[in-house]
């Protein structure tokens, strides 16, 4: 904070800013590759942080890109990802989306039988495509602690429901009749899901891949895409679970993935980005109401969308700093019960509620930790922030270097930088 203030990255005009730690990103990507064997290739879920400069360094660190919309595909291309390193996963692909992917050798995961019909037509138009094409499978193994992010329930909107009716045999027949189907995909976990549950979903599709190949009599399915969804610990700085923890459970439950028989792809997002970014916002006003100290800032539901609308599922840690960038602690300030509020005009626009924090005053700063994924790159009302900046930071504690990723005053400026 002191360095950011001294270099005018943060000044008295600041409303909200996001800072990404590029050194931390590099270490996190390295940890992912170190945890898995060489037949694993890791892609980054672009929706987790759709900033071109962040994606560009992730590409340089060796990651591919998983995209779920045409906009994300455009951003990934602007960040320099090669077509063969991109996977398009949207459950609502238009015919144009599918044609773009197949024509340009971008891999896709088919969500349903109606989409399969479209893909078949396009395969006749582009029989020499190098797109790796497969089905997204819903293993229907159940959900985790957060229902809104559970993707493997019996009624999930995602993927081909494997356990319904005669779907398993129908899918085997589909693959037997279409040799261009060479992949299987599932995304069975996310925040709130136990690693064992995620591994179970991956075990299901690995067994399915073996069954398809055995039925055909050769290895037609050569890629297994195990999705992402590794949970993040938002309660402290500790990185738990780690990629190594996940790899150990996968190796125990699905050892075939570690034998080099299949190419395995991942789609980590939050686990890559979250702990490598923070949001800092300025306290504009404070007051007391009903015995509660309320600090009004410029970062609320328009940035911390999930936290504002689902605070029990998505709590975040906050730290207060003085206007000079000095951390406020119980040794230096009175600790009071505090709500940190955002600028939006509804009662639920709160970053945290009833927290014991060193007392905040106007022109202090609040830092929200672990917000490098699904926060500052996805706020829904950009024009509500009169000044937004996103910076990268690298170096050790005494020699920090800041570089601008994005700093703009209007939506048009942002669009021109994409």
Residues in helices, as a percent range? 25-40%
Q: What would you call the structural class?
A: alpha/beta
Q: Could you list the spans in which at least 5 consecutive residues all have pLDDT below 50?
A: 379-388, 407-418
The protein's oligomeric status is single chain
The average pLDDT is: 87
Give me the CATH superfamily of the largest domain: Alanine racemase
Radius of gyration: 23 Å
Query: At the third CATH level, what is the topology name of the largest domain?
Result: TIM Barrel
Strand portion: 15-25%
Helix-strand string = HEHEHEHEHEHEEHEHEHEHEEHEEEEEEH
Q: How many strands?
A: 18
Descriptive account of the structure:
Residues 275-372 form the Orn/DAP/Arg decarboxylase 2 C-terminal domain. This is Diaminopimelate decarboxylase. Residues 27-274 form the Orn/DAP/Arg decarboxylase 2 N-terminal domain. InterPro entries: Ala_racemase/Decarboxylase_C (IPR009006), DAP_deCOOHase_LysA (IPR002986), De-COase2_C (IPR022643), De-COase2_CS (IPR022657), De-COase2_N (IPR022644), De-COase2_pyr-phos_BS (IPR022653), Orn/DAP/Arg_de-COase (IPR000183), PLP-binding_barrel (IPR029066). Keywords: Lyase, Pyridoxal phosphate. Helix content is 28%, strand content 25%. It folds into two domains: 2-19 and 275-417, Lyase, Ornithine Decarboxylase, Chain A, domain 1 (Beta Barrel); 36-268, Alanine racemase (TIM Barrel). 44% of the residues are buried. The chain is elongated and about 70 Å long. It has twelve helices and 18 strands. With 418 residues, the chain is an alpha/beta fold. Helix 2 (22-35) packs parallel to helix 9. The strands form two sheets. Strands 1, 11, 12, 13, 14, 15, 16, 17 and 18 form a nine-stranded mixed beta sheet that branches.
């Amino acid at each position: 904070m002191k360095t950011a203030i001294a270099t005018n990255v943060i000044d008295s005009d600041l409303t909200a800013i996001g800072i990404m730690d590029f050194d931390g990103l590099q270490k996190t990507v390295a940890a992912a590759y170190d945890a898995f064997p060489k037949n694993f290739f890791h892609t980054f879920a672009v929706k987790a942080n759709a900033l071109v400069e962040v994606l560009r360094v992730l590409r340089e660190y060796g990651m591919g890109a998983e995209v779920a919309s045409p906009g994300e595909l455009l951003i990934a291309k602007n960040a320099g990802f090669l077509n063969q390193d991109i996977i398009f996963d949207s459950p609502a692909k238009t015919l144009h989306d599918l044609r773009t992917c197949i024509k340009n050798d971008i891999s896709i995961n088919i969500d349903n039988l109606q989409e399969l019909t479209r893909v078949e037509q396009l395969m006749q138009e582009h029989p020499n495509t190098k797109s790796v094409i497969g089905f997204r499978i819903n293993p229907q193994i159940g959900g985790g602690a957060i229902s809104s992010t559970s993707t493997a329930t019996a009624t999930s909107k995602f993927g081909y429901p494997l356990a319904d009716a005669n779907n398993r045999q129908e899918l085997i027949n589909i693959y037997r009749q279409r040799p261009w189907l060479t992949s299987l995909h599932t995304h069975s976990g996310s925040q709130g899901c136990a690693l064992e549950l995620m591994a179970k979903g991956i075990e299901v599709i690995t067994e399915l891949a073996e069954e398809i190949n055995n039925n055909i009599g050769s290895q037609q399915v050569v890629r297994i895409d195990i999705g992402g969804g590794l949970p993040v610990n938002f309660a402290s700085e500790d990185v738990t679970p780690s990629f190594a923890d996940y790899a150990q459970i996968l190796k125990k439950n699905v050892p075939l993935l570690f034998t080099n028989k299949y190419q395995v792809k991942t789609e980590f997002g939050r686990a890559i980005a979250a702990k490598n970014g923070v949001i800092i916002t300025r306290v504009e006003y404070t007051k007391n109401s009903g015995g509660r100290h309320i600090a009004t800032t410029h970062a609320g539901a328009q940035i911390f969308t999930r936290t504002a609308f689902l605070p029990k599922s998505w709590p975040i840690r906050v730290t207060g700093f003085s206007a000079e960038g000095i951390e406020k602690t119980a040794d230096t300030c009175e600790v009071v019960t505090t709500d940190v509020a955002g600028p939006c005009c509804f009662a639920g626009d709160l970053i945290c509620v009833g927290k014991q924090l060193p007392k905040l005053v106007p022109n202090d700063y609040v830092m929200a930790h672990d917000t490098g994924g699904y926060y500052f790159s996805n706020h829904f009302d950009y024009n509500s922030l009169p000044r937004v900046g996103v910076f990268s930071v690298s170096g050790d504690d005494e020699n920090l270097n800041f570089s601008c990723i994005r700093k703009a005053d209007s939506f048009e400026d942002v669009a021109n930088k994409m």
